[in-house]
């Protein structure tokens, strides 16, 4: 396994046909703040996060993941990662260099094994952010991103071998075998997870709220606003985090969560959890059952952006 040069998750970038409707959802319903926006593109920040933005939206004919971005410790770490990927035969979309997105920095992009565009950057300017106060039900940060994979074992191996991700836990089913792998790049239980699915796509993007009260207030606000909930509220066993899953206007699943587990890196051993046990999916027993409807929604539409780099 390579050195742990990646430090954290920065943002997830989505392309959608109806930018104004998507932006309205993420700002007025979901609680992000629009900054640095321009014609055909919007950069959305979380009030409690030092990242310049946690979601980027771009107007396009095809719905797709534009890219998933991670931070590195220094420009030399960026160069080291790019060099290792190139030697391993991974396609670099851009060579390491000065970035023109908000906050600048130094970074590069590449295609992962299934064709998703991944960005690694360092020295991005810190955004002026603030402490989220008690009762404020707005996202503090982007917690994690989960992707569907048609070849999840290979995808897991790619991120472990080339990028230094570590396995935290696995979900399995007696009939279907291993189904989801939780991968971490720091002490958070997972920043990325890989789910077995019929095609590569976004499974969900998850946003951390301040605490349990704020998580439930946020969940309730969305329910009162008529946003479609597909699963929750509840508490997972893997990661020990709460969950409420909703659909955005383009059918992407987005999650409110809180209290994601921080693991002791020296003592942690991955668990193999059987999610046919209802307590694995939801320790509280408050969420609706994980059924075929929830699974179908989580499969999402096939990603139209594989091995096609976003224009910006």
Automatic annotation (TrEMBL):
<dbReference type="InterPro" id="IPR004360">
    <property type="entry name" value="Glyas_Fos-R_dOase_dom"/>
</dbReference>
<dbReference type="InterPro" id="IPR050383">
    <property type="entry name" value="GlyoxalaseI/FosfomycinResist"/>
</dbReference>
<dbReference type="InterPro" id="IPR029068">
    <property type="entry name" value="Glyas_Bleomycin-R_OHBP_Dase"/>
</dbReference>
<feature type="domain" description="VOC">
    <location>
        <begin position="141"/>
        <end position="259"/>
    </location>
</feature>
<dbReference type="InterPro" id="IPR037523">
    <property type="entry name" value="VOC_core"/>
</dbReference>
<feature type="domain" description="VOC">
    <location>
        <begin position="8"/>
        <end position="123"/>
    </location>
</feature>
<protein>
    <submittedName>
        <fullName>VOC family protein</fullName>
    </submittedName>
</protein>
<dbReference type="Pfam" id="PF00903">
    <property type="entry name" value="Glyoxalase"/>
</dbReference>
């Amino acid at each position: 396994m390579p050195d742990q040069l990646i430090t954290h998750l920065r943002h997830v970038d989505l392309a959608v046909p109806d930018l104004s409707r998507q932006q309205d959802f993420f700002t007025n319903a979901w609680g992000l703040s629009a900054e640095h926006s321009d014609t055909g593109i919007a950069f959305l920040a979380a009030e409690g996060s030092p990242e310049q933005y946690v979601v980027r939206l771009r107007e396009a004919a095809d719905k797709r993941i534009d890219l998933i971005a991670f931070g590195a410790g220094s420009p030399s770490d960026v160069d080291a990662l790019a060099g290792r990927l190139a030697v391993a035969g991974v396609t670099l979309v851009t060579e390491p260099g000065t970035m023109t997105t908000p906050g600048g920095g130094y970074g590069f992009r590449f295609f992962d094994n299934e064709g998703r565009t991944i960005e690694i950057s360092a020295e991005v300017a810190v955004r002026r952010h603030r402490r989220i106060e008690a009762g404020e039900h707005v996202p503090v940060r982007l917690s994690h991103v989960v992707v569907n994979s048609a070849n999840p074992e290979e995808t897991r191996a790619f991120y472990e071998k080339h990028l230094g991700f570590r396995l935290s836990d696995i979900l399995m089913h007696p009939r279907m075998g291993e189904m989801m792998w939780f991968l971490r790049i720091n002490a958070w239980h997972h920043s990325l997870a890989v789910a077995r699915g019929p095609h590569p796509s976004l499974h969900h993007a998850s946003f951390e709220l301040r605490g349990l009260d704020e998580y439930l207030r946020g969940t309730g606000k969305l329910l009162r606003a008529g946003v479609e909930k597909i699963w929750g509220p509840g508490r997972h066993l893997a990661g020990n985090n709460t969950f409420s899953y909703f659909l955005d206007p383009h059918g992407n699943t987005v999650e409110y969560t809180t209290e994601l587990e921080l693991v002791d890196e020296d003592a942690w051993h991955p668990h193999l959890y059987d999610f046919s046990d209802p307590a694995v999916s939801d320790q509280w027993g408050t969420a609706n059952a994980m059924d075929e409807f929830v699974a179908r929604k989580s499969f999402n539409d096939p990603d139209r952006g594989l091995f096609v780099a976003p224009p910006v």
